[in-house]
Amino acid sequence: MKHLNIEVPVKRSPKLDPDYLPLYKFNQAFLKDAKQPLGLAVERSNGEMAVCETFIHGTPEMREADCYYVNRVVKTILWMKGGFKIYVRGSEDICAYLQEAYSAGGCQAFDWDYMANVFERPFEVVSCETLPQAKDSPQAIGRHLDGCRIGFDAGGSDRKVSAVIDGESVFSEEVVWFPKTASDPDYHYNGIVSALKAAAEHMPRVDAVGVSSAGVYINNRTMSASLFLQVPQDLFEAKVKDIYIRAITDTFGDVPYAVANDGDVTALAGAMSLGEDNVLGIAMGTSEAVGFVDPQGRITGWLNELAFVPVDAAPGAMQDEWSGDIGCGVKYFSQDAVIKLAPAAGIALDEALSPAEKLKAVQALMAEDDPRAADIYDSIGVYLAHALALYFDLYRFHHVLLLGRVMSGKGGDRILAACRDVLADEYPEIAEQINPTLPDEKFRRVGQSAAAASLPEIAR
Fold it and tell me: Is 189 exposed, middle or buried (0-12, 13-18, 19+ CB in 10 A)?
């Protein structure tokens, strides 16, 4: 395959998407002949800094490739770690390009606006002579099992709550709700409080509350979340940013609480069930939710929003409706991936069905061993293998826990089998170091909401 004058060798392509061009492969091919040093740093809250030392070609004939490569690297860092200020060392031309791209009218206007809102700071791109030093502030969080705890897990289709006493779940409830279409934040607040009260009825007292929720959370506050997509900005500021804090304190008073991204809680639950650390959790459902527990068993505080991280360098890659960008993980590792591949597999899905219903229709075909459905899941497995190579380059994880509705049933088994096969063929050195797995019964007993219950520490 060739893209932007870069020849990219790919042995294994998805049967239903032969034009798929793994970004990791493109990056490797690009860097083979790139000799001009380029330094990039992204600043996030509390002085934390992500630093990347890389190379570009720096010639007029390769400028388009240089800009594309740097664009994808910066976007990856932003959605992996978050940030509001980009430092560029080594190329005034690349700095000027990024300043244009990350502006109100630029090609990355969505990212520019999103990050400014999350970090409540104007987004900047600046040139520098010396890069700032890398800095992270990972925190040990969770795994607290003592006392009477509530764990609440807010998903896009249902909300789950568990009552946990000394590490044992004594009550769990799952309720369908529609947070993404509700514009009144009181709908969300009342749903949260209802779940908390339902769990509290099954315990003698409430010592602590932990929350797992889709979105970006800083200091327990909601900075951005698709759950509240329809809430007007003024109501978001007034009622959503502190919605979990209000719901907990209004219901139980001054009890310890903690709010974390659902991807991180997924990874934490995986680490708890495996009894090991250095775990990347990937949940493929309505979107792609990702979390990471580092080798020391800590949550990093990074965004880990890999749904927005590009994985496909093909010019015709599918567009994400929200961000407007193409080739991002959400279209490859969610129910959207199943739906987009169905026509290529020869499966016509009723347009009147919801996305979740369309997924169920394909799952039903897979349950009957329909070869067309098998091709869909095999293709997603190829996507996953190439993406895991990219993710490994970013995180250096050991365990990969694959969850979510897309991974359920026979389809999940085929995705995992195809992924392992392609990893061994295309990336044998990586395949030896990582262990992609599906959740076992022990994980299901720990569960997302039960892991959320372990987040806050009870002062003694």
Answer: middle
